[in-house]
Amino acid sequence: MNFTITRQNLQKGLAAVSATIPGKTTLPVLSNILFEADADGIRMSATDLDVGVRIRVPADVKEAGSLTAPGKKIQEIARELPDQPVQLNSRGDQVEIRCGKSHFKLNGLPADDFPELPQVGFEGGWTAEGRDLLSLIRHTSFAVSTEESRPVLNGVLWELRDGEMRMVATNGHRLARMRIPAGPSMQTTTQLIVPPDALQQVQRLFAEDAEVSVARDGNQLGFSSGGTEVYTRLIEGTYPNYEQVIPKDNDKHAFVNRKALESAVKRVAAVASDQTHRIRMEFSQDRMVFNVLTPDLGEAHDEIEVGYDGDPISIGFNANYLLEVLRYVGTDEVKMSFKAPERAATVEPMGGEDDQVPDYLCLVMPLRLAD
Amino acid sequence: MARTIQILADSVANQIAAGEVVERPASVVKELVENALDARATRVEVAVDQGGRRRIRVSDDGTGMGREDALLSLDRHATSKIRTAEELRGVRSFGFRGEALPSIASVSRFTLETCARGEEVGTRIRVRGGTVLAVEDCARTPGTTVEVESLFLNAPARRKFLRSSAVETRAISEVLAPLSLAHPRVDLVLRSGERSLLEVPGTGDLVARVRALWGDEGADGLIPVEHDGEVAAVRGLVQRPDRARPGFRRVQLLVDGRPFRDAGILAAADRGYRTTIPQGTRPWIILFLEVPGGTADVNVHPTKAEVRFRVRGTVEADVEEAVRRALEREESAATLGSAPATGAMQARESAGPARRPSAGKGTESEGAGEAQIVLFGTVGATEPAPGPAEEEKGRGGASHEIDPGVADLLDGARGPRLWQVHRAWILAEVRSGLLLIDQHAAHERILFERIMERFDAGGEGGQRLLFPLTLRLTVPEVEMVQSLAGLLHRAGFEAEPFGGDTVILHSVPNPHPYFDAERAFREMIDELTHGSDLVRSARNQHERLAMSFACKAAIKAGQALDDQEIQELFDQLFATRLPWHDVHGRPTTVRLSLGELERKFGR
After folding, report:
1. Going along B381-441, which residue ranges are E strands?
2. What is the rounded distance in angstroms from the CA atom of residue A95 to the CA atom of residue A66?
3. Are residues B82 and B192 in the same domain?
4. For a tag on chain A, would you pick the N or C end, based on fewer CB atoms within 10 A?
């Protein structure tokens, strides 16, 4: 293998793949990046066995071939190289890097040791607008569960059906759901549970205006656009019936200024228990009152004006869940809906007359008020 | 009718009294040594032959007596220690009944040699079976020597019940132990025949004294107690929880310097250990109580082994609190050093000064005579200067302030550096060295105290579940859930029986992001239904549930934590009352001091 590449292209490739290199691994080859050179340029790949990233970058290939080289080291070197063409040349399992007067030899491993990334045929897949995909990911993936007892909740549910593309994530305490009308290429009906790590790579590597091809092959899912590919293992299992738990009969609605609400919650949450983060909210005619009482810490009382004309209700929440939701809702005005103090509450964005308001819904389960 | 009731002659009365006071040679030694100590002796030598049957000799360098006093001392109820009934209240001397000497003299061949300070000539009085044989001059340095030979010469029944010499000798050394602890500044020597059994210098260092009496093994694991309670001021030494073992233990209680036995006070001290030691473990306890005059009555029993407290409940509470406070401090944490070999021979001859008094935290002085002042006077001395460390420690969301003792550990204004190692332990760099924290044990302690607090405060709100958990349990388990419903509710679990063996959980507590509610609930109910050492050690249902919950809900070993979580765990641990011990009686933290490190590396 022997090729010459611009420093920018080398760095671009390294930056794309190196985030997937696992920090600690028992399999040494996973610390390496796979370089494959052919007539069209080179391909660089890295994987942690769950998520894999591959990128094609232009290069002037003199001799085709492949090799793996330690990812972090190459990246450290490339970062400080002068702005001149970089020549990479394999000698056995060693890779030689030359750039201007700089010269390095790094010990690599044979390309055969590198785990093969899944083969996913993108012909049988569908395409999604980068904008839509990124928006779905951003609005939902924060809500996945970190607890390991229910693996399906550790992933984001991605559904294609009824002409819609949806993503849903929940940890059993709060849930985020977003729906976007699907384009014509998405007439398939499918349900995937995708690990958030993979979605994070998608978010990082694909641009808003990219056309992203997506395809599934058995247990693997692939994303591809403009020479960059992301592969991931899917989470197996049945996602709980989330439609059933989204309340349809919440009849008490509060219309709240998001900024005011957010800062009020932040203020009173400072006094909340560091375990439950519990705050109490009371709604009455156009008023929203916050109360926090934490034994041996203190108490807080606050009040903001809202639009509310339902029956008074008092409800407890984990302040962190509320703040998270408010961060992603996006619009200046939000609508909160309730039924009863022990029933799920929802938060939805509200727009002006002609604003484009995303079809986004967050659900937060209340904390039982013990007193 | 002839008169049948007679007043007994003094000699007979004395023999009867001797039955109460003088039971065996050990009680003679006790009475005589107490007299010596009451006479402000600085050195007391005890010599016995054949377990004291043939001879007991106690000599001191105390104040001594003049001739008249010496003669009077042999009369019943003759004493220099009190004068009026009022003085009986709050009496500080060991003796005051004036019974001991005449009683002993009435059942033995008895020789008293004494010389008051400033007198030229001493007095020797010889008594046999209560009859004074001779009063003569003798040459003697100030002080008193009492020699008792042929004990029970006129009480053959008593004599018959004496045990072998070895047993009696051991009993004698046992009675000396509490006296020696009560007066750590007095040189005490015990010889049996030619053998020296005990030789403790009066350095005033309590730890050294324990070491001399009971060996290195016990003395190394003792931590100081220091607490001024509502009624009683409590000082002394208790064993570090990680050193405590089941089975035999050393216990010594003293009130106003007087040894006594009291199951209630001891039980209170043991209560102070609750949750820091496994059930059945019996820590060593040496406590000195000081109570205001008049609140303790020591005149309950001729041997004064019992004490009556006017406000027993408060005294017990003070003792419990004192022990608990000792266990809150850093010294109570386990150290890395290898555990001492069990069954090591007691170093009875070790008379040299202690290598390192474990009580010496916060002071460098090891000088003779200083150590006890340090031990008993640390309250002011160790008051940590309110450093910037405490203010800085407010971060991380700990709801309490960091224990000032711990803040003192931390290195200046910045918090300690923390690392998680092997996803199970947290390594903290502190001023005095390193702390190794078991993340599970630490979190157990945090959760336990938190939930107990919440029980008191009316309960924990639970997080309502979007997808309620349906659990199938065994029938006894369902019954347990039903019987505990109220308490579970206050712990944050809203469990509803769903017929048969099924229970639905509608809400669960959410103590940390990695909490697996279903597993914790199942394990907890299983443990509560079928019992375990842990739940058996609990005092009541509240504590049982809290312990079980803490154990099952705490983050497990193997859980990777990010920097902020590590910091929070550390902060919260040291905001608890007993940060050094988990609820199973295991340490949460092992200390590795710089000194230890330096020793290991031979520096």
Report:
1. 417-421, 425-430, 433-438
2. 10
3. yes
4. C
Residue in chain A closest to B459 (alpha carbons) equals: A370
Q: What's the pLDDT score for residue B373?
A: 31
Q: Is the pTM value of this prediction over 0.80?
A: no
| Residue-wise pLDDT tens digits, A59-74 | 999 999 999 999 999 9
Residue A155 has pLDDT above 80, yes or no: yes
Measured in Å, how far apart are chain B's first and last C-alpha atoms? 93
Where along chain A do its domains lie?
A: 2-113, 122-241, 246-364
Given this model, what pLDDT does residue B361 score? 36
pLDDT tens for residues B460-508? Answer: 778 888 888 888 888 888 888 988 888 888 888 988 888 888 899 988 8
Q: What is the interface pTM, i.e. ipTM, of the complex?
A: 0.72
The residue among A2 and B307 whose pLDDT is bigger is: A2
Q: How far is A365 from chain B (nearest CA, A)?
A: 5
For residue B49, how far is the Cα from the chain centroid?
Answer: 33
- pLDDT at position B356: 36
Tally of helices (H runs) and strands (E runs) in chain B: 23, 25
Positions of chain B with pLDDT lower than 50, given as ranges: 338-405, 411-413
B345: which DSSP letter?
Answer: P
Q: What tens digit of pLDDT does each residue of B35-67 get? A: 888 888 899 999 999 888 889 999 999 888 888
Closest chain A CA to residue B455: A370
Q: Categorize the per-residue pLDDT at A44 as very low, low, confident or very high, splitting at 50, 70 and 90.
A: very high
Distance CA(B123)–CA(B437), nearest Å, equals 66
| Top-tier CATH class for A122-241 | alpha beta
**Cα–Cα distance between A326 and A346 in angstroms, integer?**
11
Q: Do domains A2-113 and A246-364 have the same CATH topology?
A: yes
Out of B464, B506, B519, the one facing A149 most closely (by C-beta) is B519
Best probe of the B interface among A168, A280, A368, by most B CBs < 10 A, is: A368
Residue B339 lies inside a defined structural domain of this protein: no
pLDDT of residue B386: 37
Domain A246-364 in CATH 3.20.20.370? The answer is no
Burial class (CB in 10 A: 0-12, 13-18, 19+), B71: middle
Rg (C-alpha) for chain B, rounded Å, is: 30
Closest residue, chain A, to B463 (C-alpha)? A367
Mutate to test the interface with A, among B393, B401, B466, B519 (most CBs of A within 10 A): B466
Chain B neighbors of A345, CB-CB under 8 A: none
Cα A302 to the center of its chain, rounded Å: 34
Sheet holding B463-472, edge to edge: B463-472, B502-508, B494-497
The count of C-alpha atoms lying within 13 angstroms of the C-alpha of A310, restricted to the half-sphere facing its C-beta, is: 18
**Choices 3.30.70.3270, 3.10.150.10, 3.30.1330.10, 3.30.200.20: CATH for A2-113:** 3.10.150.10
Inter-chain touch B464–A342, beta carbons under 8 Å = yes
Do B462 and A172 lie within an 8 Å CB cutoff?
Answer: no
Per the CB < 8 A criterion, the answer to whether B229 and B236 are in contact is no
pLDDT in the model for residue B301 = 67
**Which residues lie below 8 Å from residue A134, measured CB to CB, with a gap of 6+?**
A202, A203, A206, A208
pLDDT of residue B179: 86
Which residues in chain B have Cβ-Cβ distances shorter than 8 Å to A295?
A: 453-454, 457
Based on the number of CB atoms within 10 Å of its own CB, is B302 exposed (0-12), middle (13-18) or buried (19 or more)? Answer: middle
pLDDT score of A103 more than 60: yes
CA B574 remoteness from chain centre:
24
Q: Six-digit token pair at A47?
A: 């994987």
Judged by a CB distance cut-off of 8 A, whether residue A344 touches chain B is: yes
Q: Which residues of A38-72 are buried (b: 16+ CB within 10 A; e: fewer)?
A: eeebbbbbbbbeebbbbbbbebebeeeebbbbbbe
Burial class (CB in 10 A: 0-12, 13-18, 19+), A193: buried
